[in-house]
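Hi, here's the filled form for the chain we discussed.

Project: internal
Contact: R.S.
Residues: 886
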Amino acid sequence: MPLMPAVLGPNTKLNNFRLNYLTGDQAAERPAHVWVVLGGVDLTRPGSATRVIYKSMTIQDRVFDEPNTCALTLYGAAPTVGTPIEVWLNSNVPQLLFNGELQTVERTYKGQPSTVLHPVTAIDDTARANRRQPLKPYVNVSASTVAQDLIATFAPGFSSAGVQLGLPPVSITFDGSEGGMKGCLTALAKLIGGNWYFEQATLFFFTTPPGSSPDPIDTTPGRFLHDPAIQWAIDKSQVRTRVYGKGASTQIATTIAAQTDLVPVREATMFNPAGGKAIAGLAPEAAASRILTYTGVQLGGGGGLVGPGAAPSAVPGLVLLDGIPGIQTGAHRYAYTFVTASGESLPGPVATITVGPLAAPSTAMVAAAPTAGGAVPDGAHRYTVSFVTAIGETTGAPPTSPITVPGPGGVVAPPATAPTIANVPGASVSPFDIWAVGDAIAVAVAYVNAAGVTTLGPTSNSVTLAPLTQNPSLPCPISLASVPAPTDPTVTQKRIYIRRNGTWSAYTTHANSLTGMAIYPDPTYATGTPPATNTATTMNARSVPLSQIPIGPPNVTARKIYREGGGWWYLVGTIANNTATTYSDTAASTGASLPGASTASANQVQVTVPVGASAVTARRVYRSAANVTPLQLLTTLPDNTTPSFTDAVGDGGLGAAPPVTDTSGLTQPNGQVPAGSTSIIVANPGPFADAGGWAVVGNGEQVIRYTGKTASALTGIPATGPGALVASVSYNSTITVAPALVGVVGVLEQILRGAPVHVWVQRDDLAAQAAMAAMDGSGDGVYEHIWSDERRSEPSLIQVCDAQLKLYSRPLVTVTYASRDPKTKSGKTVTIALTSPAINESLTIQDVTITELGIRGLVPKFTVTASTARQSFEAILQMLIRKADA
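And the returned structure, exactly as it came back:
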């Protein structure tokens, strides 16, 4: 019989010949199928030279403190250390359970030596990414950008495609102490409360985990296993509701006396120019224990030479001035020379200044909880501040955290207890005669606030007026005592009412501090009747205190405070100075909107040029064009007296280069300033403060205190003791302004030269303190912790302390359970809602142990530890070491 060809479509072929058919067992097996790929070879395929003993396999998936690992036993062809390995689940929708490389390979046997086994362990991509040591600072940069740059710079072959975009800005410096990429990413994640992991040579860095969340652990059948039993625990041992941060350090530059308010230091750049806190030791080897507050920072560095001077030894003074047009925007360098009858000197030291649009404040204010008074509308508010100059205004600073202003509440309760009264027959003051002997008198009190008056509280005892001792025809006064104190903070006064023979009238109003008084029958008080209803509405706090308001450069004349509303910023007040660092918003309504661009341009400079010796007949000032180095002639001051001038010359108006040889013939005379002198002659006193300060002589071995200056000297130096000139100083020695902390409070005893002084911050979680006080049943709920990291300046230290509070301000809740949900992964959030045992939590998965892999038809077992926060042993050990150092 001849054969006839048949044309079949692809599905027809598969179905007709049962090639597209899966048995029930096969269909159930595919989602549970686990396969291992070693060096690109699927070990589950027939004929593979190396095979897996599945019951030996365990995968450990941990949140960022430790890398993920996989342990398993192989047989057959020997594997090689460093070989890539992948473990996959689910043939239908493949899911990667682990990838990395073999870290250890062992060789043993089972039963007979010919049955060779290879127990191996593998580590995820963290090990490969950790081969280089990142060394780089980041200042106020998004954590997303930092993570991306770390991978691009220090992890060749890796991708940052899994980094969550738009993460908050941070300031952090990596100096190699972190132990490689792993430590850097962990430190970065803790600043923002995030997590990270590597998967297939890609960094995933996030606060919101990628992928689907695990199924809730609830009463749905099969959601969790009973081996082991689910377990809930709470632990308060790690609680910290107040965190102190001890950061970057320097040394006290010289011995200082108790109560010193200007503290000289070796370096001041790490301290907050707007003021803050520091912690100092009392001696070079002493631990820092004395907390200081300061209002500002003096960076120091300007100065000149000891002696009457020769060629220029001091930098010109430069002050930004408001104005456009003028100098081109950018950085400009200034120097000057002395001109004599013989010629011109070399230029003196260079000073640099940047002109152009004034930058907005770089740091945010701090908005505190609302206080009583004011009329700020209900709702959540953020604030920003701008700098104002004579010609314009900058854009706003970074915004504050939101502050919620609550709406009005109920009414103030009247006094809960009654006052008491009594006759005072022996009073020495003659009363008025509107009362009569025998009148029945009683007293009651009402409270007054800005909204109104309460009804009367309980009435006092009744008193029958007795005769006055010195005039029995007249009634005596009465004494009022036990006037109840208000408990509502909005109450501003107490109002006294008198009932005479059954009729009430108002008597007088007094401050809240009143506890008792004498009452006389003065007819001027006998007016008014008690209120029939309580009109004293509780007015919730409607004033928002603002602090740490940035201070601008000298040309800033005011600062404007803006409040957010409707997606934009609107004016609520102006600080008409450049010194105050606090403000209270009480405004019910807002004004103008925040500028979208800076209009505060400062393209002019006031240049102060020190005078020279008597042989100097003129001074020439040189300046660079914008953002370049070479100096060119700006102007000539044709005398040796003019102190300053205003520079508004464009770069095109600059002239010749300065001389390269000294033809002036000027020399400084020989001489010295003896030890114990109370003044020191200087070639240029301009950089030194008129009101006094500290100065560094020579190489810093002498740091002197002065209280004033003249045109040629620093004066008011103590003859002995701290700040004295203890050794003679030769002319031509350098003398410079010492870096210092200004407005210091807290120096209670002498502090020796070389003593350490650190940046110090205090951060509190007030809500957590209240919660812990309630849990403890007493106390203030303050659990203190010290975090010490000398690499950090104040902004970075605040971030670390805030991250500590975010992680540890509440007791640690931990739940352990097991499930077969393949969506279970470290870093993800799991919701637990059970009635028996009663567990209701939303927790971060910290650790997952994956076992029971390769069992036919059965999804692996995921044993989970989830908690509110946790650190590895390594991280805890580092914290304990730092705490001990503190």
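Let me know if anything looks off before we file it.
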